[in-house]
Request: fold
Amino acid sequence: MLEQVIRGWLHQDMDLFHSTMSDAIAGWSGLADPDERARVVAEIDRFFVAEAADPDAALVKRWGLDVDPPDMGRSSTEFLHMVRAIAVDPAAASRFRERW
Reply:
């Protein structure tokens, strides 16, 4: 599910539909049902456990063409915490607009 969110909502034409990454994630979260949002939260939590040694490298390796937080001056941990927070509550996107 996380793969679908990243590839489906953070693609190269994202800026035609959303002004920021956080707005794009909020767009998905606002349309997703609670089970989908819960699956994304669980996948992010598993990612943090599985990739604890170097989450930045793991995220860039997996989704580098779609999203590269280190290239934007952010860490993968910050990015995934942003996605997780918005999956829990789409209104949380407003907390991230300045940074994402």
Observations:
- Residues 34-50 form the longest helix (17 residues).
- The two ends are 21 Å apart (CA to CA).
- Helices lie at 2-9, 21-31, 34-50, 55-63, 76-88.
